[in-house]
Write a structure and sequence with these properties.
The complex is a heterodimer of chains A (about 130) and B (about 170).
Chain A (H helix, E strand, L loop, with lengths): L1 E6 L5 E7 L20 E3 L4 E7 L1 H6 L2 H12 L3 H15 L4 E7 L4 E2 L6 E8 L5 E5 L1
Antiparallel strand pairs in A: 1-2, 3-4, 4-5, 5-6, 7-8
Chain B lengths: L4 E9 L8 H23 L4 H13 L20 E7 L5 E7 L5 H11 L4 E3 H10 L13 H13 L12
Parallel strand pairs in B: 3-4
Antiparallel strand pairs in B: 2-3
Helix pairs in contact in B: 1-2, 2-3
The chains are: A alpha+beta (about 130), B alpha+beta (about 170).
Chain lengths: ~130, ~170
């Protein structure tokens, strides 16, 4: 699975996710990557999110939208909301993986509870960063 | 708003350090840097966040290292079934496709669903028909083939399990 989240110069947010699914999958199995609210979500008032990991957990947890809701209804910061969802709620349910998110102020969060995650980020005027492990 | 931000991912899971040679790790990093640079170029030029995320994801779909587009894993019967979605934070409009085959960039097809249909989510043969109607090229299966992915399929079949693309976790 691959994904991207962005904030542009006009203050708009967007999110995108794409995947080949699970190896050896059958029966038309679809994970979270194509499900708006589970694997992908964007709302200028809160954040843009793209998830990766075992799709079934992210579907059940409506993970991408959950991050936005925690910001909107509980006033959490992006970092707090993303951490709560990945490192507490998802981890408690056995869901491993991670997400990338950008907030409406340009802040970035990349929590993951698996051993590794291919990820990268850049902000205007800053050097681009690429990382795989913690 | 006088700033921009962009983040990308190429998948999560138990990417064991022992599973990757230094050269493999370096080539994965290069591919991530290329996708980041492509997306940032769009933003720096005043492009929309929507175009930036589509551009970055297309770059990752075109790389065989990641489980999407050309690097997609195989289904039980040896096909590549791809899923994708995109969402605009300004309009809350969204587009998604699932179970498409032969489409080079499923993320671009998702954006077409969002911008050139009245729907949000198209899947399977219908999504394939939509792609053909919009004259999206459908590529031959060998564009998506890689020995590495096919070995993963053989391994998973032998254990009769499904698995993430770069881990030994099984469903």
């Amino acid at each position: 699975t691959v994904g991207a989240v962005a904030l542009d110069l006009r203050g708009n947010l967007a999110a995108a996710t794409s995947t080949g699914g699970l190896t050896n999958k059958r029966y038309g199995r679809v994970g979270d990557s194509s499900v708006i609210g589970a694997g992908t979500y964007a709302n200028n008032a809160t954040c843009a999110v793209s998830c990766t990991g075992y799709g079934e957990y992210f579907l059940r947890g409506v993970v991408a939208y959950d991050v936005s809701c925690l910001m909107e209804y509980q006033g959490l910061s992006l970092a707090e909301a993303a951490d709560r969802v990945i490192n507490h709620k998802q981890a408690a349910m056995g869901g491993d993986g991670g997400l990338i998110a950008v907030g409406h102020k340009g802040e970035i969060a990349l929590p993951f509870n698996s051993e590794g995650m291919y990820r990268g980020w850049v902000r205007k005027g800053e050097k681009a960063v690429v990382a795989i492990y913690r | 708003m006088s700033t921009y931000s962009l983040a990308i991912h190429g998948g999560a899971g138990t990417i064991l350090r022992s599973e990757m040679t230094e050269e493999q790790e370096a080539s994965h990093r290069r591919a991530l840097q290329q996708a980041l640079a492509a997306g940032e170029q769009a933003l720096a030029a005043g492009g929309s966040a929507l175009t930036a995320v589509e551009t970055a994801v297309k770059s990752l779909e075109d790389c065989e290292y990641f489980n999407a587009g050309r690097g997609s894993v195989f289904t039980h019967d040896g096909r590549n079934e791809m899923d994708a979605s995109i969402m605009c934070g300004a309009t809350l409009n969204a587009g998604a496709v699932a179970m498409v085959e032969g489409v080079k960039n499923p993320i671009s097809l998702s954006r077409m669903v969002m911008e050139r249909s009245d729907h949000v989510f198209l899947c399977g043969p219908g999504a394939q028909e939509f792609a053909r109607d919009l004259e999206v090229p459908i590529l031959e299966p060998d564009y998506f083939f890689s020995d590495f992915r096919y070995q993963q399929l053989e391994e998973a079949r032998a254990k009769n399990r499904v698995q993430l693309d770069h881990s030994d976790k099984f469903g």
